Amino acid sequence: MDTRLPLLLLLAGVVAAAAPLLATAQLSADFYSSTCPNVEKVVSTVIERKFKEDPTTSALLLRLLFHDCFANGCDASILIDPLSNQSAEKEAGPNISVKGYDIIDEIKTELEKECPQVVSCADIVALSTRDSVRLAGGPNYDVPTGRRDSLVSNREEGDSLPGPDIAVPKLMAQFSEKGFSADEMVVLLAGGHSIGKAKCFFIEVDAAPIDPTYRSNITAFCDGKDGDKGAVPLDPITPDVVDPNYFELVMDKKMPLTIDRLMGMDARTKPIVESMGKKTDQFDATFGKAMTKLSGMKVITGKDGEIRKSCSEFNNPVNTDDGPSVIRISSLNPEEMMGSFAPATGKSPSAASESRKVAPGGAMEERMAAGEAKTDASGGAMAERLAAGEAKTAAAASEDENQAAGDEAAAEEEGTKSNKKKAERVTAEVPADEAAPAAKKPRAMGGQSFSMAGAGAGGEPAKKSTAMKSQSFSMASQPQQ
Ligand code: HEM
User: Fold this and answer.
1) Is 235 annotated as ligand-binding?
2) Which of 56, 66, 95, 101 to mutate to test the pocket of ligand 1 (most atoms within 8 A of CB)?
3) Which of 38, 258, 273, 406 could lock onto 165 through a cystine, CB 3.0 to 4.6 A?
4) Where are the transmembrane segments (predicted)?
């Protein structure tokens, strides 16, 4: 064997790990000092007002930033509205329930008045997320600026984002490819999932071990009047505060999303969760550092890309035969979105509520195959539930088909060319085996089957509380927007 090989591999690893840092190095603290000196003030004024009106602002922006940055870099590609003949990252399954675009637009409007076409949308996303995390009680981390906006926005990039029941080794591989260590991955999840909510649609109580009382509460809530559109807090103790509660919640198996519960059970991540849970005083510093790195991932700088005039469209949008007819996803009726997209994912809301109890495929199956899965939470009844889930698939699938057909008809009736074209495009993109899901098992949420059928619908920093109270929690349903 070539004795230089281990050295070369080591060097390759070091270069890969340094990639995001190199990109961050092209950014600077005083990038707008002469071209738009008030940029930070303008951003923080809008964010403080938004946060005062609605503290969930922080969760919306933090998720938006993660989804933009993790899908090919922090380049504002997630903000682009799809055109009638061109899809965009925003339409990808994992992005359908992402919100906060209106907040970025509002800041952009203010900045365009002050210094036209100077501040990039990518910088606005990074700065506004930093401010909203600080207001929610999190760290005030560094966000150097100088990002430029992308000239492309691909739906496929968004589709590659991890789903909530992705297996831990796969998730670690995804983070590692992007230059993040396992510790950084865990702390990003910990901070990110310490605020905000998860819709019942995304929750599978049997896909990983879970606290029995917590399980009953979740199941009772999610089987309630709002069904899959209801949403439960990720951190029931301090749902709007960025704090280190995550670690204890994970170890207690009291988190709604499968991936978070898996973090506390996988042999690679469990020791990290335990160790970080013992050093909560270091959380702000560690999370802040990881956020600076995430916010600087694969940024576009210098003469590349552009500074958009409007964050939701390129400066020179591709002209179509019918003119640049922009479909604004945010203006579509959520029911319409659910229907339009259901065939592509093979999952209807009713199928989703079944999968809350049934966890075929995805991480659980992988772990079972690897002999890693414990049967404690899912118990011996797993096989029975799998069988029950399969029996219900045909009904769920035919519901999907009916819903999709209904939406196409509705789009046509409305006479809006853009809506009709979109319906056509969505149908055209459905692979043959997906278009007839009746013969398939109900799909788990994770991996790339992350479905969007669940899409539905102020100023003082929040107070921290790391004290763990009893696990009773109010599961307010997600307000419709
Ligand atoms: C790495 C794997 C991750 C997966 C699989 C994942 C998945 C999810 C899912 C399924 C939801 C619920 C969405 C909904 O109900 O609409 C969610 C919510 C959220 N995620 Fe993640 N996430 C991950 C990492 C992160 C990271 C790294 C951050 C930020 C640093 C983050 C921030 C958030 C926030 C703030 C929410 C709440 C959003 C809201 O209330 O609207 N997530 N995540």
Assistant:
1) yes
2) 66
3) 258
4) none
